[in-house]
Amino acid sequence: MTATVAPPGPAATQTRALVGWVALHAALGLVITQSSAAASLHALVVVALLAAAVAIGRDLHRTIVLLAYASTADVLWRTGGASVPYELGKYLLLAASAVLLARYVRRPTGAAPAAIWLLALLPAAGATLLGESLSTARQMLAFQLSGPVMLGVAVLLLRQIVCTTDEIEEVLRAMLGPIVALAAIAAHAVLTAPDLRFTFESNVDAAGGFGPNQVSALLGLGAVLCALMALHAGRTRRTWVLLSLAGWLLLQAFFTFSRGGVYAAALTSLAVVAAGLRASMRRSRTVAIAIGAVAIAIMSFWWADATTGGNLGRRYEERESTERVQVAVDDLALWSDAPLLGVGVGRSPVQRTETTGISSHTEYSRLLAEHGVFGLVALGALIAMALTAVRRNPAGWPHLVSVALAAWSLVTLSHSATRFAAGVAALAFAQLRVDADPGPAGPRRL
């Protein structure tokens, strides 16, 4: 008698696909540790694929997935030493969103908050152009406004998109890929550094040689994405894979000694749990995943604290205000001196007295200092974009995705401003509307 082997079911296939995706990007990270040319090549491939999809592609779903992938890749490229423009991630998303808007959207719906946000940025930009040399003004505008402008254009685009829950999970998985590669670089650095020492400050070496704040933020986002997908996975092996992956990402975030990314992940998780407990169909699942996530986070912290000789615990026990708090206070002082128009985009670092030369880490105080009353209008538009995003989807998993992405973005803007693409792109992807059966009418389906 010949035994027959049944083909793997959908759950097993999805688990294998996830494991393969994670393994591929972990390997990519290890290759990048050996050669910055690999990071440059990866960036070139992503740019080429996205450019082709945006310009001549006909599968909008694949294009949006590529857009999601690019949104978390810029910190990987910076850490890997890729020979690409520093703000490439933001430029990519801005250009791609603008072209896709022109190709697919004639009359965007729900455009008011994003339009107000973009218009509120203009007066202070004009002040910078009038008050600085063309070269200096260009640098200031590129550094400070590439992220905010990208956010407005991406929100205009993604508010028009309707997708299924499976398609939104593919978007989240795409965002996770570069984060896994980044974690592999950080893990390699921790394991192989010849003289790695942990003090009470952020650790550049443990972050793979790049800014711990940005690396920690991306790793925290990765843990949040894993928890979201675990909520959607049901009682399958994929849930355990995702929770284990979240634990590893948190472990690497702890090793950076940068608290911003960990705090952002924790606050985002609290927002998701609060939203999940309000949905009767998701309460038990939310509680189960939350308990598992907390247990894994505690184990990751314990391991990292033991490895660092207790220094990690002492780092989180610190209560002294950080330099970015003083920068924010000085920004508010600048706003009080120039309440109407602000001091101009990019000019706050040279206008401050106590923290001269330091760029703002808090986008909210920067908007007020550099944009004046128009910055206050922009803050209102920002909150409106977040609120409309979480109200677009029905209760259940799609709603939790919007809550998580919007909450993480808002928290990240408080400690990393718009330094990397994902910090603002997450709020744009929170705008995606999920429908189990998107029809031909209305916004275009993914």
Describe the structure.
The protein has 446 residues and is mainly α. Helices cover 72% and strands 1% of the residues. The protein has helices at residues 10-34, 36-55, 60-71, 74-80, 88-104, 112-120, 122-131, 134-158, 165-192, 212-233, 237-255, 259-278, 283-307, 311-317, 323-337, 348-351, 363-371, 373-391, 397-416, 421-429, and strands at residues 162-163, 433-434. α12 (259-278) packs antiparallel against α19. The longest helix has 28 residues, at 165-192. The radius of gyration is 22 Å and the shape is globular. The N and C termini lie far apart (48 Å).
Number of helical runs? 20
Distance between the termini: 48 Å
- Percent helix among the residues? over 70%
- The averaged pLDDT comes out at 91
Shape: globular
Q: Tell me the structural class.
A: mainly alpha
Q: What is the topology, as strand order, of the major beta sheet?
A: 1-2
Radius of gyration: 22 Å
Q: Which percent band covers the strand fraction?
A: under 5%
Q: Describe the sheet with the most strands.
A: 2 strands, parallel
Number of strands: 2
Provide the succession of SSEs: HHHHHHHHEHHHHHHHHHHHHE
By oligomeric state, this entry counts as: single chain
Low-confidence stretches: 1-8
